[in-house]
Write a structure and sequence with these properties.
This protein is mostly beta strands. The chain has one helix at 91-94; strands at 25-30, 40-44, 78-82, 104-108.
Length: 115
């Protein structure tokens, strides 16, 4: 049986964003501790914050938006390459790995802002 792994990253206030994008702000607007009936938060962020998909519409005027993409595009066999120690991802580096049969290649870097 295949294993499903969620690779999404948490979204939080002041997380790193694309240069020029507005900062992420998550603010609690209703709190049970303050006597409200529910905890409610607002999130202010560019749609490119955190883990996201750039739909064809992002770059192609008549391209598909995310809601029109086939969900099967987001599952499948993926090769995860540890690129933590690579200053630059080069063709020579990528040729060290066999990508045959992989639907996608993910480059892993755990250190925030590394290189």
């Amino acid at each position: 049986m295949a294993r499903m792994i969620d690779v999404t990253r948490p979204i939080f206030t002041n997380m790193t964003v694309w240069p020029g994008d507005d900062s992420v702000l998550i603010e609690r607007v209703s709190s049970i501790l303050n006597g409200n009936k529910a905890n409610i938060s607002n999130i202010h962020a560019c749609v490119h914050s955190g883990t996201h998909v750039d739909a064809p519409l992002h770059f192609i005027p008549d391209g598909k938006s995310v809601d029109r993409l086939d969900i099967s595009l987001f599952t499948g066999t993926v090769l995860v390459i540890d690129a933590e120690n690579e200053k630059h991802i080069t063709e020579k580096f990528l040729k060290l790995f066999s990508i045959k049969g992989c639907k996608a290649v993910f480059l892993k870097r755990l250190t925030a802002g590394s290189h």
